[in-house]
Amino acid sequence: MPTEWSDKDERQYEHVKESEEDQGRSEDRAEEIAAATVNKQRSKEGRIKESKDHE
């Protein structure tokens, strides 16, 4: 878990990861999707800084 993630972020990550695996995705792909989902939510809430590549 990245140090910037809250406990809520970690719970969301685990939930999304398990859901994606239940849908037949590989563990690696499920982890990618879960991390992207959490980071998107954090960005939407203004809790993540955009990288210079996205400015």
Fold and architecture overview:
There is one protein chain. The chain is mainly α and 55 residues long. The chain has one domain (1-42). It has two helices and no strands. It has helices spanning 7-22, 27-44. α1 crosses α2 (27-44). The longest helix has 18 residues, at 27-44. The termini are far apart. The mean pLDDT is 88. Residues 1-32, 42-55 have a biased composition (Basic and acidic residues). Residues 1-55 are annotated as: Disordered. This is RelE/ParE family protein.
Q: Give the amount of beta strand, in percent.
A: under 5%
Gap between N and C termini = 26 Å
Mind summarizing the main beta sheet?
Answer: none
The general outline is elongated
Radius of gyration of CA atoms, rounded to a whole number: 12 Å
Q: What is the number of beta strands?
A: 0
Mean pLDDT, nearest integer? 88
SS-based class? mainly alpha
Helix fraction bin = 55-70%
The sequence of SSEs as H and E is HH
How many helix segments? 2
- Counting structural domains, the number is 1
- Unreliable stretches, pLDDT < 50, 5 or more residues? none
Biased composition (Basic and acidic residues): 1-32, 42-55
Region (Disordered): 1-55
Protein name: RelE/ParE family protein
Organism: Calidifontibacter indicus
